[in-house]
């Protein structure tokens, strides 16, 4: 990369940092417990809107994995999400009534929070329906992974989205608060993912899975991106630029090996297709606050009325990370 | 009190304390060296915990940088203190703060009592060493290394090149034969004190201080000078990964560590509570007297290194996306591609399925949809038959199919009607077997109900596509096994030619092909081709037209031969 290209990349990073700086004013603190953050603490960042039902299991899952402190941006919830979060002992909450779309789908807000609180920490940025699975996650806490990444001088950890779905109609089994969503959405597509390197930012662009198969079979290019870099040893000069798909500086996106080897990676199990989703799809399609004016949600709203069952006989039932590693979806790399 | 420990500690003090106390309580003196970088207050707090224990002492401190002379210096300080303070010690065991004994100390002591004169130190001549990450073996001893390998890599490499180029060399002092090995050793008092009290120690130290990574060579080389009996292996189980840093053990390694029968392992994750709990409990059952056997653990870790270095061939994933040329195998398994046979024979697919087994797909790259075997709309891995999805990433469609059906032979058909994007990929793939009868696409046209002009246009189009396909089969990057026959040649001797292909796919079989599926009627095929020629579409891919039957000689070549 030449000097000019490199400088333009720097300008791009600056642009995103400025956006975050401007949009910090949209955030109002609800409960700030960030004084509890100390050296070595692992942090989680998330934007929520009306996710009261999903939160108890989300917090339980990540507490068990070893997240020490959660930082939430509440986008104008009306279902008690904000109050619930403010009551949790390890959570700090900010709130904003402003547009999710205009803040680059929450990324400006989170970039700001990470810049102020994430420096020097391992930061996990996930939505409340995303559950991190990494090699050995059943026997080793997240801290074991981050310690190993530190020792290996690796700054970022890739984990693609793995969309999970139930067998039978999506709304047949109602989701109860506190329940493991993967008791219902236990299935996934194991071998229909498509990859391309993004030459500008160096990341892999991943598409496929159930969403490409069921909703974008005629327009694959529009299928949602599944590549994510959710876990980063944050420094204040870093910035996410497109959801958690891409970061700057670009080196952080190299979570795959272009030379034939395998790098250690995980997945984010995506508990999207639950009963909660069917109502949500219609609402979000109306609100148009999501990526590409929620075109994706419109596709779901249409698709889910007609053919309800996403399951097919080749669907794979989720067992554990070892299964994912054998299927080639994740890799232990040289972590043994 | 025949065994004493030296412990180099720089972090995880609570774990170091646990292990030091364990050794001391079993009658083994411990001398601890705490890194000089540790703050005085932290050091004092750590040291004062051991006030009550005369078996645990502290050596003079120095600031240690990993891989630098200071590490040897620290070891020397601690060794001198141990030898001076505990005259009964016969064997000195060098350990770090992240080491964990896997077997009771009494077993280690018994083992050493059985080998009272033996020095356990991995010590290999530089010619035999293959494990160095930086590739420097003999040159560690003859070049100078003023720049940091970690922080000033470019300068480091440049200076090494410079010295090689101009033949700058240091002289190896007399009496030193360069040896390398693991830095974790167990030496006898005699050998260790000979090294430490050698009359020329000052000059030795001065020499080794500038050797590259002296902690892997100082004791390893000098032990050769004084020892009477060396077993060139370390009693400490320690594995290194491709980056040259030690693999870390976690709670889930417990069964593996137990089966290794090694005495001490490093490095242990400080929060591996279960490992510390289990292995520091001397009441547990242990298999007495077994020889250390790190082989089992070796396998696990060398597999990990292989996975990181080469990866699984044919896998394209978020972890492994090789750039062109670095795939180490474009696909994960052998597969077969047939072209033209289904135009020529009736029921070729089921016949082939009986012959070679596995999954026989139709035209996977057909324009309307991927024709999966058995008319399925989805295949293993939830691969969709949507043409749009397939044509979006045509090669990954194939690699996905092959990956998801590992262990089952895949075959499919391709023809000039189909999308051709995958052709350059498969021709460059050594896993592909391609068998093609060119010009066979004209056979169905013979009985087509279309008008002649439409047939002509269709024939011209198909022939153009097939010519491009043939060109790919002759490209310089060709790696697939290819069998191509013009239709005329094939029809002359179909059995023999098919036999060749099939035995290449399934391996040689004693059974000869006898039954071919019925061949379509080629009566009048020659006249048809001549009409095409005269209509302006010259048949270029069918071979010698004279071999085909005309209307008058009927079905002479028809059916099996």
UniProtKB/TrEMBL annotation, chain A:
<keyword id="KW-0808">Transferase</keyword>
<protein>
    <submittedName>
        <fullName>Glycosyl transferase family 2</fullName>
    </submittedName>
</protein>
<dbReference type="GO" id="GO:0016740">
    <property type="term" value="F:transferase activity"/>
</dbReference>
<dbReference type="Pfam" id="PF13704">
    <property type="entry name" value="Glyco_tranf_2_4"/>
</dbReference>
TrEMBL record, chain B:
<dbReference type="InterPro" id="IPR003406">
    <property type="entry name" value="Glyco_trans_14"/>
</dbReference>
<keyword id="KW-0812">Transmembrane</keyword>
<protein>
    <recommendedName>
        <fullName>Peptide O-xylosyltransferase</fullName>
    </recommendedName>
</protein>
<keyword id="KW-0808">Transferase</keyword>
<dbReference type="GO" id="GO:0030158">
    <property type="term" value="F:protein xylosyltransferase activity"/>
</dbReference>
<feature type="domain" description="DUF5927">
    <location>
        <begin position="266"/>
        <end position="550"/>
    </location>
</feature>
<dbReference type="Pfam" id="PF19349">
    <property type="entry name" value="DUF5927"/>
</dbReference>
<dbReference type="InterPro" id="IPR043538">
    <property type="entry name" value="XYLT"/>
</dbReference>
<keyword id="KW-0333">Golgi apparatus</keyword>
<keyword id="KW-1015">Disulfide bond</keyword>
<keyword id="KW-0472">Membrane</keyword>
<keyword id="KW-0479">Metal-binding</keyword>
<keyword id="KW-0328">Glycosyltransferase</keyword>
<dbReference type="Pfam" id="PF02485">
    <property type="entry name" value="Branch"/>
</dbReference>
<keyword id="KW-0325">Glycoprotein</keyword>
<dbReference type="GO" id="GO:0046872">
    <property type="term" value="F:metal ion binding"/>
</dbReference>
<dbReference type="GO" id="GO:0050650">
    <property type="term" value="P:chondroitin sulfate proteoglycan biosynthetic process"/>
</dbReference>
<keyword id="KW-0735">Signal-anchor</keyword>
<keyword id="KW-0256">Endoplasmic reticulum</keyword>
<dbReference type="GO" id="GO:0015012">
    <property type="term" value="P:heparan sulfate proteoglycan biosynthetic process"/>
</dbReference>
<dbReference type="InterPro" id="IPR045971">
    <property type="entry name" value="DUF5927"/>
</dbReference>
<keyword id="KW-1133">Transmembrane helix</keyword>
């Amino acid at each position: 990369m030449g000097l000019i290209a490199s400088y333009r990349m720097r300008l791009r990073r600056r642009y995103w940092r400025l956006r975050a700086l401007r949009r910090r004013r949209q955030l109002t603190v609800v409960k700030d417990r960030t004084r509890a953050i100390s050296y070595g603490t692992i942090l989680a960042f998330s934007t929520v809107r009306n996710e009261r039902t999903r939160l108890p299991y989300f917090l339980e899952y990540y507490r068990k994995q070893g997240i020490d402190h959660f930082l939430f941006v509440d986008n104008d919830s009306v279902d008690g999400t904000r109050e619930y979060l403010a009551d949790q002992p390890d959570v700090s909450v900010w709130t904003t009534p402003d547009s999710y779309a205009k803040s680059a789908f929450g990324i400006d807000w989170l970039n700001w929070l990470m810049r102020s609180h994430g420096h020097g920490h391992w930061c996990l940025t996930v939505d409340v329906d995303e559950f991190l699975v990494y090699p050995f996650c059943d026997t080793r806490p997240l801290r074991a992974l981050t310690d190993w990444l530190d020792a290996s001088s690796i700054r970022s950890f890739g984990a693609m989205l793995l969309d999970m779905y139930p067998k039978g109609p999506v709304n047949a089994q109602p989701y109860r608060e506190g329940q493991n969503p993967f008791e219902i959405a236990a299935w996934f597509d194991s071998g229909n993912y498509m990859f391309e390197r993004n030459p500008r930012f160096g990341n892999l662009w991943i598409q496929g899975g159930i969403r490409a198969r069921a909703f974008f079979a005629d327009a694959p290019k529009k299928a949602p991106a599944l590549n994510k870099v959710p876990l980063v040893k944050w420094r204040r000069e870093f910035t996410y630029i497109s959801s958690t798909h891409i970061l700057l500086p670009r080196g952080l996106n190299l979570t795959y090996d272009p030379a034939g080897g395998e790098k250690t990676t995980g997945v984010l199990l995506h508990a999207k297709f639950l009963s909660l989703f069917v109502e949500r799809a219609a609402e979000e399609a109306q609100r148009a606050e999501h990526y590409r004016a929620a075109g994706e949600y419109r596709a779901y709203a249409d698709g889910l009325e007609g053919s309800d069952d996403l399951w097919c006989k080749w669907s794979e039932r989720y067992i554990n990370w070892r299964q994912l590693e054998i299927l080639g979806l994740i890799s232990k790399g040289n972590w043994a | 009190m025949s065994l004493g420990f030296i412990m180099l500690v720089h972090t995880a003090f609570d774990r170091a304390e646990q292990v030091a106390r364990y050794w001391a309580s079993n009658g083994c003196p411990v001398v601890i060296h705490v890194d000089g970088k540790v703050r005085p207050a932290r050091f004092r707090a750590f040291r004062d915990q051991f006030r009550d224990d005369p078996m645990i002492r502290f050596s003079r401190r120095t600031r240690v940088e990993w891989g630098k002379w200071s590490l040897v210096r620290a070891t020397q300080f601690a060794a001198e203190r141990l030898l001076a303070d505990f005259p009964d010690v016969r064997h000195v065991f060098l350990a770090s703060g992240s080491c964990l004994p896997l077997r009771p100390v009494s077993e280690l002591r018994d083992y050493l009592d059985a080998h009272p004169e033996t020095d356990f130190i991995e010590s290999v001549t530089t010619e035999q060493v293959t494990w160095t990450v930086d590739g420097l073996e003999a040159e560690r001893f003859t070049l100078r290394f003023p720049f940091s390998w970690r922080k000033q890599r470019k300068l480091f490499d440049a200076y090494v090149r410079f010295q090689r180029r101009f033949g700058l060399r240091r002289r190896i002092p007399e009496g030193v034969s360069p040896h390398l090995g693991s830095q974790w050793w167990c030496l006898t008092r005699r050998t260790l004190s000979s090294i430490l009290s050698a009359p020329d120690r000052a000059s030795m130290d001065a020499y080794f201080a500038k050797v590259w990574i002296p902690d892997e060579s100082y004791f390893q080389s000098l032990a050769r000078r004084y020892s009477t009996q060396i077993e060139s292996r370390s009693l400490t189980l320690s594995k290194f990964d491709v980056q040259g840093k030690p693999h870390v053990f976690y709670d889930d390694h417990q069964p593996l560590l137990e089966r290794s029968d090694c005495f001490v392992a490093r490095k242990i994750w400080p929060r591996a509570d279960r490992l510390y709990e289990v292995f520091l409990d001397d009441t547990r059952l242990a298999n007495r007297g077994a020889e250390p056997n790190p082989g089992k653990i070796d396998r696990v870790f060398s597999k990990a290194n292989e996975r990181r270095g080469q990866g699984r061939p044919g896998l394209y994933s978020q972890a492994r996306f090789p750039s062109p040329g670095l795939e180490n195998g474009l696909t994960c398994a052998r597969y077969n591609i047939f072209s033209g046979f289904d135009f020529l024979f009736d029921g070729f697919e089921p016949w082939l399925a009986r012959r070679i087994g596995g999954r026989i797909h139709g035209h996977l790259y057909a324009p309307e949809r991927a024709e999966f075997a058995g008319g399925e709309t989805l295949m293993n891995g939830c691969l969709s038959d949507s043409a749009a999805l397939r044509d979006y990433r045509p090669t990954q469609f194939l690699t996905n199919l092959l990956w998801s059906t590992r262990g089952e032979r895949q075959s499919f058909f391709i023809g000039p009607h189909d999308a051709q994007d995958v052709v350059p990929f498969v021709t460059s793939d050594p896993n592909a077997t391609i068998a093609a009868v060119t010009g066979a696409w004209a056979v169905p046209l013979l009985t087509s109900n279309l008008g002649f002009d439409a047939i002509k246009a269709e024939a011209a189009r198909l022939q153009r596509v097939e010519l491009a396909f043939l060109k790919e089969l002759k490209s310089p990057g060709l790696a697939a096994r290819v069998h191509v026959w013009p239709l005329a040649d094939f029809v002359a001797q179909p059995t023999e030619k098919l036999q060749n292909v099939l035995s290449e796919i399934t391996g040689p079989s004693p059974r000869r092909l006898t039954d071919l599926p019925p061949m379509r009627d080629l009566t009048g095929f020659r006249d048809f081709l001549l009409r095409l020629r005269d209509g302006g579409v010259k048949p270029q891919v069918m071979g010698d037209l004279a071999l085909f039957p005309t209307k008058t000689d009927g079905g002479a070549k028809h059916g099996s031969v």
